[in-house]
Specification:
There is one protein chain. This protein is mainly β. It has a single domain (2-131), classed as Beta Complex (Metal Binding Protein, Guanine Nucleotide Exchange Factor, Chain A). Helices cover 5% and strands 34% of the residues. It is built from 1 helix and 11 strands. The chain has one helix spanning 28-33, and strands at residues 2-5, 12-15, 21-25, 37-42, 46-50, 55-58, 68-71, 77-79, 87-91, 105-107, 123-124. A 5-stranded mixed beta sheet has the order 9-4-3-10-11, with no helix packed on it. The chain has a 3-stranded antiparallel beta sheet with strand order 1-2-5, with no helix packed on it.
Length: 132
């Protein structure tokens, strides 16, 4: 069991099974959200314990498609909780417990700012692997 929450603690959740993978997204949108390190969880594993009323959704304009969620009180980025997909990303910074994973990949490396240096041997993709 892995617990998670927003910064102010108004939103609490748990994962009943470990995340399937962890990666870094270097796209400008994830960087602006402060949510570049992401863990991927199965929808069946994610359980919102409290704070549904504090979850705000951002629905982007095309061509973007991922609906992002945030805490209405503290602004913590919560990834794509509430997604209809079988698996979805949650910012690793929302986890209160260790996910026991290492970074396995970097996506949108082509958008990475010059000041950020990738210092691991994880697989790198210039864009998203699903775009190829």
């Amino acid at each position: 069991m892995i617990k998670g929450s927003c910064c102010c603690g108004s939103i609490k959740f748990e994962l009943t099974s470990p995340p399937s993978m962890m990666g870094m997204c270097h796209c400008s949108r994830c960087r602006k959200l402060g949510a570049s390190a992401l863990v991927f969880t199965d929808k069946k594993s994610f359980h919102l314990l409290e704070g549904q009323e504090f979850i705000a959704r951002y629905v982007p304009s095309a061509p973007y498609k991922h609906i992002r969620t945030f805490c209405k009180i503290c602004g913590t980025a919560l990834g794509e909780i509430g997604s209809e997909n079988d698996s979805f990303p949650i910012p690793a910074n929302c986890l209160d417990d260790e996910p026991r994973l290492a970074i396995q990949f970097h996506v949108f490396v082509g958008s990475k700012p010059s000041w950020y240096e990738i210092c691991d041997n994880a697989q790198q993709f210039q864009e998203s692997p699903e775009q190829h």
